[in-house]
Amino acid sequence: MTELAALLDPSLIGLWAVVGLAAWLQTLTGFAFGLILMGGVGLFDLIPLPEAAILASILTLVNGGMVVGREWRSVDRPALALFMAGSLPGLALGYVLLLWLVGGALSVLQLVLGVLILGAALQMMRRPVTRAHRSAAPAFVVTGFLGGMMGGMFSTAGPPVIWHMYRQPATLNTIRATLVSIFVLNGSMRLVLVLATTGIPATTLVATAGAVPVVALGTHLAQRHPPPLSAAAIRRLAFGLLFLSGLALSLPALLQLMKAVLP
Fold it and tell me: Where are the beta strands (DSSP E) in the chain?
C-alpha cells in the first residue's frame, strides 16, 4: 500500500506529465527537453531542483545513448574535444554552485534557473547564421565552459553549445551527432559527481522508473500523431512555453530577494 500511495502522489504524476510534454516537444522540435523539464519542475515545485537535474541527466543518457550508437561516425571529433576541454571544468564549477545555493539560497537558485530559461528562449528565437569558416579553437572551449556550467547546475547544457555548433560550416548530421555526444558525456560526468557526493535519492529512482516509459510514449505520440500545426507554429509554442516558465520562475524569486534586501 505504501508503494502504491507513493506512485499515486500528485507531485509524481505531475512530474511524469511534464516529462511526457518535454519528450513530445523535443521530438517535434529537436531541442529543449532539459529546459522544459527543469522549467516545469521549478514552476510547479514538483520535486527539488537538484533531483530534477539528476532525472534530466539520466533521461538524456537514455535518449542520447541510442542516438550516438547509430551516428557516432558523424561526430566532429576535434570540435567535441574542444567543447569538452571547457565543459568538464565548467560542469564541476556549476555543480559546486548548485550544492552551495541549495544550502540556503533557494530564491537565488530559482532566479538563476528562470533567467537561464528566459535567455535560452530568446536566443533560440533567432536562427544562427552559418559562418563561412570554422570558429577558432578558443571559441569552442569558452562555449563549452558556459554550457558545462549550465549542465552542472541544472543538467541543461544545450543553449550556448547548440548556438555555437549550428554556426559552424558542417552538415546537419555532424552537428546533431556532435551535440548529442556532448550531452551524453556531460550527463555521464554529472552523474559521476552526484554519485561521489550526494548520491541518487530513492525518490529520484522511482521518478526515473516511471519517466522512461512516459518519454517513450511522448516520443511515440509525436512521431505517429503530430498535431495539425506547421513546424514554425510548434517551435513558437515551445519558445512561448519556455519564456513564460522563465518569467514565472524568475519574477517571484526576484521579488522575494528584493524584500529580503530592501528595508
Answer: none
